[in-house]
Each structure stands twice: as C-alpha cells, then as structure tokens.
Amino acid sequence: MSEARTVETVVMPLSGRTFRWRSDGFFRVDEPVEDGDPGDGDGYWKPWEPDAGWPGTSEASPGETADPTWWLRYGFARPDVRVTAWRADDVDVPVTRLGHLWIAEWRSAAQPLFVALDDEVLEFEVFRPDYLPPARVPFVRTAPNPRG
Question: What is the pLDDT of residue 18?
Fold first, then answer.
C-alpha cells in the first residue's frame, strides 16, 4: 500500500502565482486563474533540484515604467537553511517557505535583489531581454550589496 501524498499550496498576493509542494519532493508553479481558466502553469510536477537555478518573473519588463511593479523570484533550499532577502535600496523583502522552495515577492521599481541562504549571498541582477525595444525609462541593472 502506498503512502498518500500531501500537497501544500500558497498563492502569492501580488502576482497571483500558485506554488504547490508535494510531500514526495515535487513542485509546480501555476499562473493566476483568469476567466475560468484552471491556470495549470507548467502543466506538470517537477522534482526538487538543489542546483536548478532561480527562476523569476515580473509584472513589467525593466525599463517599461518608472512606477513600482511586482517582482517574483524563487529557488530551492533545504528547510533548515535560513533564507532572507532585501532589495538594492536596503528594504527587506518577505520570503515565503514551502517545502524546499523559497519564494520572494515584492513591489518596487526595477532594482537588484539580494538573497542570503544562510551565509551565502546571491545577487539577482535586473535583466531586460535583447529582443525588446530600448527601455523607456532608466533602471538599475546591478548594484552593490547594501549589507556588505
């Protein structure tokens, strides 16, 4: 007899993205539900991969608007790893933990994000794809870590 899998779910308040973590170490990220669409996101469960990178998304591409928009970045860390995040302007960013996932979501102008996994600090530069036209407004691609 197999053990029943449990699923933990969190819906991020700004982006509406739904993150799901399954007790067997698989996860999925779903787009917000719109007009009755079930919002199946990637359409499949993926295994937890400690070195898989740190996906992210935003409400608008950097350089599109000077107004604050939402930003989202997530990655993987064992539950015993302390995860904290802050923006380049030294404002803390809330981090949500779900299984082996950490999820940071915030509202600001385009600027780098710093994430500490215990003592290791990662910098996430702001990226504007080359296929987009030139930015309408200036934005900060990279910045020094305000916390050293």
Answer: 93
What is the layout of strands, in order, in the sheet containing 69-76?
56-58, 69-76, 101-108, 95-98
Locate 50 and state its tokens: 């400690």
Q: What is the DSSP letter of 60?
A: S
**How many whole angstroms separate alpha carbon 58 and alpha carbon 110?**
9
Please give the class, per CATH, of domain 7-124: mainly beta
Q: What is the pTM of this model?
A: 0.88
CB 14 within 8 A of CB 72: yes
Domain spans in the chain, listed from the N-terminal domain onward: 7-124
State the Rg of the chain over Cα: 16
Task: Count CA atoms closer than 13 A to 7's CA, side-chain side.
Answer: 10
